[in-house]
Amino acid sequence: MKKFAITTVAVLGLGLAACDGPRENAAEDAGEQAAEAVNEQAEAMEDAGQITDAQEDAMTDAAEDKADAMEEAGEAADEAAGQ
Question: How far is CA 53 from CA 18, 24, 39, 45, 68, in A?
Fold first, then answer.
């Protein structure tokens, strides 16, 4: 279910990407890739019994929050550059 939600958010984000500047797009892409890597790692750790489901959720949420912050920083850089 989590993969579906992340994929849905990523696909919906593509529809809005045309309005974004180059720095925001780059930051968003990097953030999404990093968040997906953390999500996969957290799922593997939970499947292996190394962490709980709640810990997996917390790791994924933190990675998504970081990705959002990266995108916002990219947007601010685009705005500062007049894009």
Answer: 36, 32, 12, 10, 22
